[in-house]
User: Fold this.
Amino acid sequence: GAVVSQHPSRVICKSGTSVKIECRSLDFQATTMFWYRQFPKQSLMLMATSNEGSKATYEQGVEKDKFLINHASLTLSTLTVTSAHPEDSSFYICSATALGLAGADTQYFGPGTRLTVL
Amino acid sequence: AQSVSQHNHHVILSEAASLELGCNYSYGGTVNLFWYVQYPGQHLQLLLKYFSGDPLVKGIKGFEAEFIKSKFSFNLRKPSVQWSDTAEYFCAVNAPNDYKLSFGAGTTVTVRA
Assistant:
């Protein structure tokens, strides 16, 4: 149980275009989802926290107009990288947690999306 | 806010050797502690977690970790590693009911056959 999927797993786009990444909780309802960014050989950096039906909370230094997060349902959150530039190239990972799920303080991670902006 | 430090950046071992990875955190209150593993090309998986109770926690794949409150530490151990334990290991911390995790920088473990 507690499986989180992401789509796509890999995307290459041209500079200036927008890219949408989906994060789904497959077998539980995720009241809270998180978006992380991971640079090569580095740890995960939290970008934002999203709760179903409300606006995302962004970490300091993360541009909310550039990284649009929508958490429209209890099983789906999306991250849209708008007007992507090469410096946005990274590995984006989502995680999810849920009240009522055993170990509600535990986050379950998706497999990540590799974004390359040319 | 919490911060997490992992002492070793890269550890290289031979099969059957024992492994211990250090993790220290800074936070004055009650914390939840986690170790995650990321195998090459795969997503983060939970190895074990500590919320309360017995400070010696056993996880999957033969791993265990010990919470020492006085040292603000949560070191990960495995008595005998296998080649398949080659991976990146992350220590993470959050406060109870605050889902935001703070991660350490990670330790790359390479096990040589």
Notes: The CA atoms of residues 53 and 67 of chain B lie 10 Å apart. Chain B has a mean pLDDT of 92. The longest strand of chain B covers residues 87-94. Chain B is about 0% helix and 50% strand.
